[in-house]
User: Fold ACY2 Aspartoacylase from Cnemophilus loriae.
Amino acid sequence: GVEVGPQPQGVARADVLDKMRKIVRHGLDFVQLFNEGKEFPACTVEVFKIMEKVDYPRNKNGEIIAIIHPKLQDQDWQPLKNGDPLFLTLDGEVIPYQGNCTVYPTFINEAAYYEKKQAFVKTEKIKLTAKHLRSSVS
Assistant:
């Protein structure tokens, strides 16, 4: 599957649709070249590995007591370091990120995840190495 976004539920965005079309075309091009016997060299690629889902701060009754800080909003895949603003309480208090490593949040403040108690997903940037690849079909 391919998920391209972010975009609000029920909204069709031209830029996101264009990105989706491009990635599907790349996938189909790969399948065609692979089926034709093209050899793909070994490569290394940076990816984001999910670490954990992070909920909004809540009170003892389970009610949200802080929102995503404005400096974090719309910053999916950008580095979040220890001390950076994370949440903003309804009283205006900043709750900073407290972590021992830089993380890369994504799905920040997505409406579809409120009911799942998810403010964002914390990811880490890692490198994956793929061996060369070639179809055994001639």
In short: The mean pLDDT is 91. The helical segments are 14-35. The first strand starts at residue 43 and ends at 54.
